[in-house]
């Protein structure tokens, strides 16, 4: 259950890894841009559970005696270090740190308020990135009612500007979930001065696959006309609210996940809905959100429907 009403904030999961540090940097910049506070959360999974390893987990140095006090103290030192860095980089940012015991995804979901944003790294200390994406990040995407941003490792974690350079790509399918994703994408693009690329991808094959399209059994011209209409209707209200955002529309005859990942190359952010199902047959978002958090080369924001 979410906390009682309070000021919105950005919540960043942290475990001491470089991936998590990159995510905290991204979260701090976003919090400053939104005028919100930042809370860095380190979750200690102790005793070790039988579930897959969470992405926000403390691994103490070899030879350290493991007990609650030792783990908490070490986690608090790590959180203090990264929160101090955020304060120094963004002097006006209100930053807090929290250490909890439990499972990462469950703990983060419990802490999230109605207007919060959750940010987590794509890999952590304890396992391969895809294992982690299959556990904590995937669980958050499916259970957290607020937007979740999965941040990729940065080539240079200190290059803050480089982490947000490029365009914003959003998947469009005409569903209410897609509408929320579009709003998130426009807001981000407007605040950071990015071009927005709205993508409608059509396929008559299963949404989960990442392979390019093959044989068609529909008239591409007719599908393209329907898609152009859907894009225009989906974007119209947002373009009026955010006239400063340059918008490019892309209708692609490809599997949705494959099309979005290709468009996200060099992007600052890819935005998708979590369970969309739109007005035109075989549309974009739905289960695609799970595929793109594995394969996208940039941060991915997954936005839940209402």
Main attributes of the structure:
UspA, 9 helices, Rossmann fold, 2 domains, ten-stranded mixed β-sheet, ATP-binding, alpha/beta, 306 residues, single chain, Universal_stress_UspA, elongated, 10 strands
Question: Can you give a write-up of this model?
Answer:
This protein has 306 residues and is an alpha/beta fold. It folds into two domains: 9-154, HUPs (Rossmann fold, 3-Layer(aba) Sandwich), CATH 3.40.50.620; 164-303, HUPs (Rossmann fold, 3-Layer(aba) Sandwich), CATH 3.40.50.620. It is built from nine helices and ten strands. The protein has helices at 18-34, 68-89, 104-111, 129-143, 160-163, 176-192, 220-241, 256-263, 288-295, and strands at residues 9-14, 37-44, 95-101, 117-121, 148-151, 168-171, 196-202, 247-253, 269-273, 300-303. Strands 3-2-1-4-5-10-9-6-7-8 form a ten-stranded mixed β-sheet, sandwiched between helices. Strand 7, helix 7 and strand 8 (247-253) form a beta-alpha-beta unit. The two termini are 16 Å apart. Residues 48-58, 126-134, 205-210 and 276-286 have low confidence and may be disordered. One of its GO terms (molecular function) is ATP binding. Pfam families: Usp. Belongs to the universal stress protein A family. Keywords: ATP-binding, Nucleotide-binding.
Q: What is the helix/strand order?
A: EHEHEHEHEHEHEHEHEHE
Averaged pLDDT: 80
Euclidean distance between termini CA atoms: 16 Å
By CATH, the architecture of the largest domain is named: 3-Layer(aba) Sandwich
* Record field, number of beta strands: 10
Enumerate the spans where pLDDT stays under 50 for 5 or more consecutive residues. Answer: 48-58, 126-134, 205-210, 276-286
- CATH topology value of the largest domain: Rossmann fold
CATH class term of the largest domain: Alpha Beta
Number of domains: 2
Q: Any idea what the radius of gyration is? A: 20 Å
What portion of residues belong to β-strands?
15-25%
Largest sheet: 10 strands, mixed
Helical run tally: 9
Read across the widest sheet, the strand sequence of neighbours is: 3-2-1-4-5-10-9-6-7-8
Coarse shape: elongated
Helix content estimate: 25-40%
> What is the name of the CATH superfamily of the largest domain?
HUPs
Q: Helix/strand-derived class?
A: alpha/beta
């Amino acid at each position: 259950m979410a906390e009682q009403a309070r000021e919105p904030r950005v919540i960043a999961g942290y475990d001491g890894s470089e991936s998590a540090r990159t995510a905290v940097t991204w979260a701090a910049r976003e919090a400053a841009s939104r005028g919100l506070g930042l809370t860095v959360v380190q979750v200690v999974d102790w005793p070790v559970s039988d579930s897959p390893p969470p992405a926000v987990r403390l691994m103490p140095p070899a030879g350290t005696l493991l007990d609650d006090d030792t783990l908490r103290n070490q986690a608090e030192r790590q959180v203090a270090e990264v929160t101090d860095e955020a304060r120094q980089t963004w002097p006006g940012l209100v930053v807090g740190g929290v250490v909890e015991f439990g499972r990462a995804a469950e703990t983060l979901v419990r802490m999230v308020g109605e207007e919060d944003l959750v940010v987590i790294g794509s890999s952590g200390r304890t396992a391969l990135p895809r294992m982690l994406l299959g556990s904590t990040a995937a669980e958050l995407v499916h259970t957290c009612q607020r937007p979740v941003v999965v941040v990729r490792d940065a080539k240079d974690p200190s290059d803050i500007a480089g982490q947000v350079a490029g365009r914003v790509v959003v998947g469009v399918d005409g569903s209410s979930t897609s509408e929320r994703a579009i709003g998130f994408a426009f807001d981000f693009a407007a605040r950071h001065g990015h071009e927005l690329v709205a993508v409608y991808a059509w396929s008559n094959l299963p949404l989960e696959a990442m392979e390019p399209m093959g044989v068609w059994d529909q008239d591409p011209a007719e599908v393209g006309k329907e898609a152009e209409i859907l894009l225009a209707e989906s974007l119209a209200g947002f373009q009026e609210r955010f006239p400063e955002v340059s918008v490019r529309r892309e209708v692609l005859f490809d599997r949705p996940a494959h099309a979005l990942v290709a468009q996200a190359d060099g992007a600052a952010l890819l935005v998708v809905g979590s369970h969309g199902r739109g007005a035109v047959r075989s549309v974009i978002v739905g289960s695609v959100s799970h595929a793109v958090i594995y394969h996208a080369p940039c941060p991915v924001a997954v936005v839940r429907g209402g």
